[in-house]
Amino acid sequence: MDRRRLSRLLGRTSIEVPAIGMGTWRTFDTDEDRRPLVELAIESGIDLFDSSPMYGRAETTLSRALEGVRERVVVATKIWTAGAEEGERQADHALRLFGHVDIYQVHNLLNVPVQLALLERLKREGKVRAVGATHYQESAFRDLAALMKTKRLDMVQIPYNPLRRTAERELLPLAESMGLGVLVMSPLQHGILDRRPSPAQLEELGVSTWAQAVLKWVASDPRVSAVLTATQQEDHVRENASAGDVPFFTPEQRDLVVRIAEHSRAAG
What we know:
The protein has about 270 residues and is α/β, with parallel strands linked by helices. It is about 40% helix and about 15% strand. The chain is built from ten helices and ten strands. The N and C termini lie far apart (about 40 Å).
């Protein structure tokens, strides 16, 4: 891994993750060979891959792409069902694909009592290293916070970017106080890429593109363990990975990113 890209611990676990990880939604729901993409990601310092049964063929495609390099990466995936039997089936499938799952999450808080108990059992059996929960909607943050307070989770996965900052109110402070890891989903969605910073602003931020600025803005929050973003374009893999280069943004640079985002939104 590039020495400028420092790994971080996922909360209080022993799992090291890069500042920038790779999601597999849509981009891995294919029968095409994603090995070249995965190899480039690893070479670029992206060695965390996040998937889910929700993403169609993504888990299977990812597992094929990881043949021979599985032990070099961190695999995160999810249980995505309300049914107990289907949850067991999904877990059996993932364990056959990956051998073990580093970070196993209850996707969108579906049937937490049953699915979290399943993941906790797999963790006790040594098949899972960390358990967590996810949700993509801010309306579910209250339920997610309540689950975090039970102390049964090692991490959470949530949306967060300069235009989606609800997580700053309770979830990120709570995660920090409890020593929980935080993966951030969908950092480049919900209109953020419509913003148009000036070349001088990008220079002040020390980045080449607005996408890099957004990713680095999220990664610069010390409460965030890793930022997940999906792509199937090789140039975007390199561009995204460079957002994990140190130094990270100062508070003043993060404020500038927010001003760019807010001003552009108001102007639009």
